[in-house]
Amino acid sequence: MSAKQSTVFVALFSGINVGGNRIVKMAELKAFFEGLGFSGVATYVQSGNVVFRAKNGDAAALTKELETAFEKKWGFNSRILVRDAGWFERLVRDNPYPEVAGEPTKLHAYALEREPTAEEAQRLADKCTGPERFEIKGDVLYLHAPDGLGKSVFANLIPRTLKVPGTARNWRSVLALLDMAGKAGA
């Protein structure tokens, strides 16, 4: 199959290889994707990022397929968000904080399962009282945490306040994944 007949996707896993729990080696994850028939598979860092090519261009169907097969193989559920390369291009292009893009540990993007409602976004805005700033654009939440994510009290409030499942990546990871997706599509 030629590259033109398939689409480049990125799978973002949440809840694996965090704090020594739910360990999944990236080599095993790569082999898992290849075993499902995906091509051009590459992983990035231990938190579970996989760039791959698929004939099926439906991210929602791919998400279901991957989550089901993953749980069957590893025996636990990991929420997986699948996005195409164009989504990553928009994410980077639409960054509302370009002035901090050079400090990748202070800028994060949360891939959300869906766009939050105005009420959900307002509930989160009401909790943002520290040095952080955030902006939601569609199904992406951009967070500037000037003291870093690890020291951000607000960052810990995001999942339970917003109540929209998602997974965060620092800006270095976002740019690396975009670069990998671009190379996979070449």
TrEMBL record:
Protein name, entry field: DUF1697 domain-containing protein
InterPro entries membership: DUF1697
On the tree of life, the source organism's domain of life is Bacteria
Q: Which organism is it from?
A: Mesorhizobium plurifarium
Q: Which Gene3D superfamilies match?
A: SP0830-like domains
- What PANTHER family does its record include? BLL4334 PROTEIN, DUF1697 DOMAIN-CONTAINING PROTEIN
